[in-house]
Specification:
Largest sheet: 7 strands, mixed
Strand content: 5-15%
Number of strands: 14
Strand order of the largest sheet: 4-10-9-8-7-5-6
Oligomer: single chain
Mean pLDDT: 93
Structural class: alpha/beta
Radius of gyration: 25 Å
Low-confidence stretches: none
Number of helices: 21
CATH architecture of the largest domain: 3-Layer(aba) Sandwich
Number of domains: 3
């Protein structure tokens, strides 16, 4: 990247990139700034959090030591070649081992969590002690293919309990498929929907925008080629401030039976608000007119706001629930996610109603798995399709990853006072407050605001505070992403362009999760400084 300001033509060419690819260009520019200035590069473009939940990780690592003791005590052909955990009597051995561990110091909180998880699993959940502890020990060692391949039995039950608490009890007794994070879930779901002839090229698919940009990009890929119906969050306060909620008229687009599916991220990304419960209820009511609507809801940010209820709880029959542990627990590197589907669901109904030629083609696809391929439910087709069917016998998320999901889930289920949730939410609120203080602005009070990200509507703010003349000047003289390049070059701050998320083109998205607390005030001051440049240029041009 040349060490000079980019021309408007340069910026226009670059802003067609995905926001996450454009970010890499901005990082190059910010790197030049870092070499010239005393301030470091501040990348507020990515949502990877810089906080973690330590106690379930302590439990994981301490459990590994117990499991290794079990392996060595089984058989040791050599100190470097030993056996695997054995089920008979393992619960008693685990209790005895826990009793020998210190209740304080390094790993004390993890040992305490393991003790509570064992007591809770056996006493409250009714698990067989040896079966439960053997799954824990065998999982941390990772010496088996996952069995069942869709999800380990105890892991599925614990995660299901966690989801019903956090996403709403109305989601019901969902069947879960453990996957490599929300990223894999999105890919697997869209692939299986098309492979099973439930969606096809040119089908009308609604998408609630603004939205996490890969949903837009995947839907436009050649193998999908969906006809996107944009359901736009365009509600405003009486004085014109965006609330990022959905007008009834937009939701009513879903009544059209030609709309076959709906893609939703809730709480939203980039606007980071939870969808108004009244809107969720309206979507549920729409199904009376469009009963075959397939809903995919991605609810990764739901734990960052109290009282959250998933669309899957309003529409369990129609909804595929995608959940990732990545953001709430600081676990993007673990790649932990699930797809949830109610046993009584519209996807299995639609499979049963496929034309006979389609059924015969799918019979051939899944014939190696069973003598009755038509009986395979959609959730199990997801598993098979994730490994191109032929490798179904080795499908499934690794055992250590599933164990980590179990421990994260149990940790929160046993946190009766929601201490971790309160601390995580408070951290986000403090950082957002520091950012706004640095910018010297206020956002409207909004009970639906999550605040993991903030989407700044720059033209809306300019018009509200300075009138339409400033808006006309900006549009006439600059590209919508000009501010991103100024921020990167002059201050080292990296943000993402809202237009790439199908938000207003003159908007930017900032992550509130991934930088040091004090840096958010710096970012706020940097944004204000650049904004004041535009004001000065406008005033100079109108003198």
């Amino acid at each position: 990247m040349p060490d000079r300001p980019l021309s408007r033509e340069d910026i226009r060419a670059l802003q067609v990139l995905s926001p996450f690819e454009l970010k890499e260009k901005l990082r190059e520019i910010a790197g030049e700034h870092e070499g010239r200035a005393a301030f470091q590069q501040l990348n507020a473009g990515r949502g990877n959090p810089n906080f973690i939940a330590p106690t379930p990780r302590e439990a994981f690592f301490r459990l590994g030591l117990f499991a290794l003791d079990e392996c060595r005590s089984t058989v040791a052909w050599d100190p470097e070649l030993v056996g695997v955990p054995q089920k008979t009597g393992i619960a008693d051995r685990f209790r005895a081992w826990l009793a020998t561990q210190s209740g304080s110091g390094s790993g004390g909180a993890g040992i305490d969590l393991l003790r509570r998880v064992l007591d809770w699993g056996v006493g409250e959940c009714g698990y067989d002690p040896d079966s439960f502890v053997w799954e824990l020990a065998d999982s941390v060692i990772g010496d088996h293919y996952p069995a069942p391949d869709r999800m380990l039995r105890h892991a599925e039950d614990v995660v299901r309990r966690y989801l019903r608490r956090e996403m709403g009890d109305g989601i019901g007794p969902v069947d879960l498929f453990a996957v490599e994070g929300g990223t894999a879930a999105i890919c697997y779901v869209l692939d299986s929907l098309t492979t099973n002839r439930l969606l096809g090229k040119g089908d009308r698919v609604a998408i609630m925008t603004p939205i996490f940009t890969p949903y837009l990009e995947i839907a436009r890929l050649e193998q999908y080629g969906f006809d996107l119906v944009h359901v736009t969050a365009d509600t405003r306060t009486p004085d014109g401030v965006r609330t990022w909620q959905f007008p009834d008229a937009e939701i009513d687009k879903l009544r059209d039976p030609s709309v076959k599916a709906l893609l939703c991220v809730n709480p939203t990304n980039p606007a980071s608000v939870s969808v108004d419960p009244a809107t969720l209820a309206r979507i549920a009511a729409v199904v009376a007119d469009n009963p075959d609507l397939v809903v995919v809801t991605d609810d990764v940010y739901g734990t960052f706001i109290d009282g959250f209820t998933s669309l899957a709880a309003h529409l369990p029959h129609n909804t595929l629930l995608v959940y990732s542990f990545s953001k709430y627990f600081g676990a993007t590197g673990w790649r932990l996610g699930v797809v949830g589907l109610h046993p009584d669901n519209v996807l299995d109904d639609l499979l049963a109603r496929l034309p006979e030629p389609d059924k015969q083609a799918l019979d051939a696809r899944y014939a190696s798995l069973t003598l009755a391929p038509r009986d395979i439910p959609f959730v199990d087709r997801l598993v098979a399709d994730s490994r191109d069917v032929a490798l179904n016998h080795t499908a499934g998320l690794s055992q250590p990853q599933q164990l980590m999901m179990l421990l994260f889930s149990a940790y929160c289920l046993l946190d009766r006072d929601d201490h971790y949730k309160q601390q995580a939410q408070a951290l986000i609120r403090r950082r957002l407050g520091d950012l706004l203080e640095g910018m010297r602005i206020r956002l409207i009070d909004d009970p639906h605001r999550v605040g993991y990200y903030v989407e700044l509507d720059l033209l809306g703010y300019a018009e509200h505070h300075h009138g339409p003349a400033l808006v006309e000047f900006l549009r006439a003289n600059y590209e919508p992403t000009d501010i991103l390049f100024r921020l990167a070059r002059q201050t080292g701050v990296i943000a993402l362009n809202g237009g790439g998320f199908d938000a207003p083109p003159w908007s930017i998205r900032l992550s509130i999760a991934n930088l040091r607390d004090y840096q958010y005030a710096e970012i706020g001051r940097a944004i204000r400084s650049v904004a004041e440049q535009y004001l000065a240029e406008w005033r100079a041009a109108t003198e």
